[in-house]
Amino acid sequence: MRPSILLLCCWLGWLPDIGSSLYPAQHGWLRRGKSGGCGFIDVGGGFARKRGSSSPEHDSEEAARKRMKFASSRRGRQEVTMSWNPLKLLRGGGRIFSSVFTKEGNEAKYSRRGRPQIGVDVDFNTAVLIALLSVVLFSFSLPLLWGQAATLSQSFWLSRIVFFRMLGLVYLVAFAVALFQNSGLLGSNGLLPVDLYLKRVRRMNDWPEQGCTWNMLNEYPTLLWLAKPDQVDRWMSGMAATGMCLSLAVMVVGGSNVLVQLLLWTMYHSINTVGQRWYSFGWESQLLETGFISIFMSPLLCWSALPPGCPTPWVCVWAMRWLTWRIMLGAGMIKIRGDSCWRDLTAMCYHYETQPVPNPFSYFLHFSPVWWHKFETMMNHIVELPLPFLILLPVTALVVFGGMVQILFQITLILSGNLSFLNWLTLIPPILCLNDNFLSFLFSAETISQVQMLNSQVVSWSPFTIAREGIYFALCALLVYLSAPVVQNILSKNQVMNTSFGSWKLLNTYGAFGSITREREEVVIEGTYADLDEEDEEKVEWKEYLFKVKPSETSRRPPWISPYHYRLDWLMWFLPFSDPRRNPWLYHLIGKFLDNDKNVLPLIRHNPFQDANPPKFVRASLYLYEYAPPGSDAAARGEWWIRKRIRTFVEPLCLEDLRPIYRQFGWKFPQSTSV
């Protein structure tokens, strides 16, 4: 097998320099932010983009400067304007990043100022050769020739069982989140309705109003193109429910087949494509990449934990190690190049208090000594920067050690915060660093004996074997080819995190917490029955809406929800980082509160106006939250948080004030006062 891989590497090494034509339009639509950096403008904000065109029809001044007008009846009709600069399409090339930009909704925003220039720009061929080098190193750990029996230290039957059980768990959680939350987030009466999104995409790209074409699937891969507009909600719920059932079966069996894994990947991709802002985070594309590789890890039809004649493919073992290396190194480099607190080792002094959704352990970890926080930060750098290289080496002991370090690291992150299913998902790829000999303690003697029997079977060449190996080599070539822009990004001085280089999201770049906030600011939404035209805003009684997991009342202990994920609470954490007018869904949420909408209210924990008339006005206030220090008076009273109101984030609004924005975005205005 090793000579064949080397021949493949030699062939791929002579690929022409076609970097300038690779992914021509996949860097996204950019806009210039306040700091001078650039950011993706996504349909998540409510607007569709025309993809694959350098002169989209909505590049006109009229379409590029969209305005939302609404009034605050507290002080007359006060106009609030929301505008966008003209959009620009960046095309890829040998130097694929000429400026710093991030995808809107990611964990950090960067500018050139203050960032250390660490990195090097490499051309497309060099990036391909770096990916090929990892394949070559991996090939030395494989049996030399076909016909040689494998040992437990060379096989990954048991590793695949653990892999599929963990992947089944993550898929189960992801589809459960979709089933229970997408109605309020993406449904026809949700905050960012999918039916309007698809209609807007069709219009902006001059696509037919009905039916589906290959170009539509290629640009926006989703099965929802096949659904009628009034059936989109049922399709999304059906895919989520089906995905839950199949992923539960995969988790229980510890194995799968090509058809099941392909169906899981297709359904989640269909939901992710239309997920807009709610699905704009790195773990979504990471799940899709992991799920895509898992399609090739199992037999075509046989659904068994130990399918005869189908060992874990070598290309999938390499792909998972390569994915682990890219995830960890990308996360480490974005930290070193990003916030200064990562370089002065003080990041963990703030992280436990300011992370999106703390858990109970986060409170106690925050009050650790400063020297311990600096030690934690240093260990984070060691785990993410030098140690990932161990898993690419052809030395079994080093690979196992490197894989276990990454798994244990993810477990510590799970214990220290509610980061969705990100860390549960990230510990899956390094499982393929652990061979059957290492994992044998988890299984019965009967299972070990069965694995030894499977390893003793000599693989002979046959048309089926040749075809299967041909698919594996083709997959390897594809992944190496797609790795080029990712490697360029990791090495670049202007690294960007959590970005896909194609609509199919087969291979992506990752990173997390490149910037750490020093203070925790929370948006608190409140309603009132008072008539603000006659009363002072600060003297009336405001009742607070309580969310599922975000900090609210100071006496509530931080919850433990991982690996589950509340998408609305997560997006609420990002609101203080930008002007509220950049998040139209926030105004739609306020409108839902003003109407006591039954579709969205299940997304929150408590509605103070439930079973009563809706409020006349709703506002959003900005509060500063801090942990109550142990031994303080607040802690003695059972308080977990201390909070202080800073200012008004969104002026008080009544339902009539939101009529223009409802009309602009095509949202359904409450029937009681139709547009």
Features:
about 675 residues, alpha+beta, 4-stranded mixed β-sheet, 4-stranded antiparallel β-sheet, 23 helices, 12 strands, disordered N terminus
Which SSEs are present, and which pair or pack?
Layout: H1 2-13, E1 29-32, E2 38-40, H2 61-64, E3 88-89, E4 101-102, H3 124-139, H4 157-186, H5 194-204, H6 214-219, H7 232-253, H8 258-273, H9 282-294, H10 314-337, H11 340-343, H12 348-354, H13 360-366, H14 370-384, H15 396-416, H16 422-426, H17 436-439, H18 445-456, H19 463-491, E5 499-500, E6 508-509, E7 520-528, E8 543-544, E9 546-547, H20 567-574, H21 584-595, E10 604-606, E11 617-627, H22 633-636, E12 641-653, H23 659-665
Parallel strand pairs: 2-4
Antiparallel strand pairs: 1-2, 1-3, 5-6, 7-8, 7-11, 9-10, 11-12
